[in-house]
Amino acid sequence: MFSGPIPRSLKTCTSLVRLHLESNQLTGDISQHFGVYPQLIKMILKSNRLSGHISPNIGACTQLTVLRLAQNMITGSIPAVISKLSKLEQLRLDSNHLSGEIPPEICTLANLYSLNLSSNQLSGSIPTQVEKLSNLGSLDISGNILSGLIPEELGTMKLQSLKINNNNFSGSLPDAIGNLAGLQTMLDVSNNNLSGVLPQQLGKLEMLEFLNLSHNQFGGSIPSSFASMVSLSTLDVSYNNLEGPVPTAPLLQNASASWFLPNKGLCGNLSGLPPCYSTPATAHKRGKILGLLLPIVLVMGFGIVAAIVVIIILTRKKRNPQESVTAEARDLFSVWNFDGRLAFDDIIRATEDFDDKYIIGTGGYGKVYKAQLQDGQVVAVKKLHRTEEELDDERRFRSEMEILTQIRQRSIVKMYGFCSHPTYKFLVYDYIQQGSLHGILENQGLAKELDWKKRIALATDVAQAISYLHHECSPPIIHRDITSNNILLDTSFKAFVSDFGTARILKPDSSNWSALAGTYGYIAPELSYTSVATEKCDVYSFGVVVLELLMGKHPRDLLDGNLSNSEHSIMVKDILDQRPTTPTSTEEISLAVHIKLALSCLESSPQARPTMREAYQTLIQQPSSSSCSVPFSALILQQGMHVDIRSES
Questions:
Q1: 145 or 299: whose pLDDT is higher?
Q2: Considering 94, 481, 499, 577, which one is annotated as catalytic?
Q3: At 216, is the secondary structure helix, strand, or coil?
Q4: Domain coordinates of the chain in residue numbers?
Q5: Backbone angles phi, psi at 456, to 5 degrees
Q6: Residues 203-233: pLDDT tens digits?
Q7: What CATH number is given for 331-430 in this structure?
Q8: What is the pLDDT of residue 229?
Q9: Strand order of the sheet with strand 42-44?
Q10: Residue range 394-400: average pLDDT?
Q11: End-to-end CA distance of the chain
């Protein structure tokens, strides 16, 4: 990995054919340090620290087929001269600081197959000329501030993946989207301001595997045509205004309620959803009958109600007032005692009814609030989405939470208690000041301060905590959401495993069937085809976290297939986070062990993964220089694959 400014001499290398400088720490102004390269076919500069604007000179590189400038600090607008790159097939400008509108001229690139402009500050609307991108297979403009209507013209394209989520699009979802017959990988329109009804035409997307319509304002019912989407593995329509029955399809009938809740009034044979007592047709017939019987019913009903009122009045006179108050409180909410006190009102008051200004973290399963109680104690309150638990299985939720509150292990955040309320469901934790591992890795200064010694100790602490849950708790507990966001660090960088909102108690006499839980990028692959959660799911997530800890970022590129790509070798030293100081020879030996362990945890077969106890034992053993047959500087990532650490320990 290289760092520092780009050599000035590069500007004069006009005969360049390929330029690969990706995944380094290179700095400099991209508009000044690069020249005109008329023979250049590929320019890949992603994952550096390049700044400045995209130079208009880029238009002179007319032979370019691949242009990747993603994951830098590039500012300004997308120059219209990019339209001169008529041979361009891949254009990736994502994860920069680009602003302005998407230039319509970009739509003249007829050979473009992949376009990614996500995670910028682009505004305006989608150009209607987008249909001219006749060969485009993947379009990702998510994570911007784009607005306006979604153009019908999108439906005329050959897209296999479409991501327009996390923008400000409004209006309805065009029926024409259903004409994207080749759409297979993903359709994500979540987190916009879309409204209207869901098009029946979406049911024509028989190849689609992932559909996310959540966090919009869609109304009406889920189209019955969704039952025809036979390839669908994930559907999310949560946080809308939908009502009516969930269509009868194998996928939908065995789905998690979190895919559907909250909504206005969905029903179906799913845990967490109310049953559908009648179809619209039978409801209409019943309405006619009720219309005829209504006068009779009203007269009889009035008499019955009057009698009941009299009985209630007489009964209340004899009822113990204290019993009435107690029963009423029990109906309103059920709060597990927080250090012997009823903390519900205190927490509501401390967060001003969960005002956003108290949010210190957000995840797929809820938001975390900082609350200072009346006695001055500061706690973290995880407010769960009502869909995280089976709403009709309140007894199981309470019993599991009570078990979790008994956990006392030094690397697990202390859970004081929980609340189960018709309006709120939340967990109360000890407040850890420094924040999450994810947040620290995103902070340049803190990531540098998190040196290799601290990172090695951190991985050991996390392994010990998960091992405790799996092997020392009775019955065993699986966390189900081990991520860098759920690993908290105090001011001395001591690690604590947090967030048991999705945890499950393993019961020997149970199938341990569970709705899919976890965070995308950390979920074990077997959960895509089975709903049986095991300890090995946590082991996989731990492997992801260890790689993230060593790389300084989520190992997304490795998990997407580069690990199994035997055509090229990946040097371990090249993927390490460059922000900490260079590891010592002793630390290099430990890092080699961590790499092997992480890859062992990421085995596709659950049986091939170690247990967390074995993982922890591997980390606490003192490795010697003889245990590493290859010098760290020459260690190739693929050499650590398919190594059974159990046979080495």
A1: 145
A2: 481
A3: coil
A4: 3-236, 290-319, 331-430, 435-648
A5: -65, -45
A6: 999 888 889 999 999 999 999 898 888 888 8
A7: 3.30.200.20
A8: 86
A9: 18-20, 42-44, 66-68, 90-92, 114-116, 138-140, 161-163, 186-188, 210-212, 234-236
A10: 64
A11: 31
Nearest Cα to Cα of residue 187 among 171, 67, 204: 204
Question: CB-based contacts of 181: which residues, under 8 Å, 6+ apart?
Answer: 204, 205, 206, 207
- The CATH H-level (homologous superfamily) assignment of domain 435-648 is Transferase(Phosphotransferase) domain 1 (1.10.510.10)
Given 3-state DSSP classes, what are the helix, strand and coil percentages for the chain, each rounded to the nearest 5?
A: 35, 20, 45
Angstrom distance (rounded) from CA 247 to CA 268: 8
CA distances from residue 508 to 401, 476, 512 in whole angstroms, order as listed: 19, 9, 9
Coil, strand, or helix at residue 254?
coil
**Is 175 known to be catalytic?**
no
d(CA 297, CA 88): 73
pLDDT band, very low/low/confident/very high, at 282 (cuts 50, 70, 90): very low
Query: Residue 308 corresponds to which tokens in the numbers above?
Result: 């009941």
What does the pLDDT look like over 324-376, one tens digit per residue?
333 333 333 334 444 434 467 788 888 888 898 998 876 656 788 898 888 78
Other Cβ atoms less than 10 A from the Cβ of 174: the count is 18
Closest C-alpha to 647, from 587, 600, 603: 600
Structure tokens that stand for 204 in this block: 């024509």
| DSSP state letters, 338-393 | BTTB--HHHHHHHTTTT-GGGEEEEETTEEEEEEE-TTS-EEEEEEE-TTSS-TT-
What is the per-residue pLDDT for 392? 46
pLDDT of residue 302: 61
Cβ contacts of 432 within 8 Å, gap of 6 or more: 380, 413, 488, 489, 490, 496, 498
pLDDT of residue 554: 92
CA distance 201 to 196: 14
Distance CA 209, CA 616 (A): 37
CA count, 13 A, side-chain hemisphere, 633: 3
Question: Does 383 appear as a known binding residue?
Answer: yes
DSSP 3-state of 565: coil
- Measured at the CA of 506, the angle between CA 617 and CA 408, to 5 degrees, comes to 60
Q: What does the chain come to in residues?
A: 649
| Residue 146, token pair as written in the block | 């784009």
- Report pLDDT for 289: 46
Q: What is the CA 405 to chain-centroid distance, rounded?
A: 26
Over the stretch 178-211, which tens digit does the pLDDT of each residue have?
999 889 889 999 999 999 999 999 999 988 888 9
Q: Name which of 618, 587, 379, 410 is nearest 494 in CA terms.
A: 410
Structure tokens at 284: 């209409």
pLDDT band at 477 (very low <50, low <70, confident <90, very high): confident
Query: Would you call 172 helix, strand, or coil by DSSP?
Result: coil
Largest CA distance in the chain: 99
Q: Which CATH architecture best describes the domain 3-236?
A: Alpha-Beta Horseshoe (3.80)
